[in-house]
Please model this.
Amino acid sequence: MVIVQMERKHVSQVAELEKLCFADPWSEKSIASELENGLACWLVAAEGDAVAGYVGSQTVMGESDMMNLAVHPDFRRQGIGEALVNGLIDALGQRGSSSLTLEVRASNLPAQKLYQKLGFVQVGRRPNYYYHPKEDGLILRKEWVL
Model:
């Protein structure tokens, strides 16, 4: 398993993972457009030609926001999510970012546990942030020194 920058060849698999993992998935077109977005950084966990997971972010003025993180159900509980987030933090640091913010469902305890392990702290709450089902989003943030 290797963590690499998302390329056009990965887009269709990332879009399929979006559909598999999220109630409101990004379209393949939206994911592909991130390849042309200078603010975006998307990584995939690749096992040969297969995409086992991905993470995407956007950065403005040195502050990054994680847009998406997903791992295929067949590859969960193997450290791939952790590797993707750590890879993203490294890549963002190299691009001059000094923080990463994200939202996570209030009920998603496994994800919260992962983020806490990686040094994220809760800095806020967005009421009714998620749909299908409607749920609050916890705002988590991690900062680092360049």
Summary: The beta strands are 2-5, 40-47, 50-60, 63-71, 99-105, 121-130, 135-143.
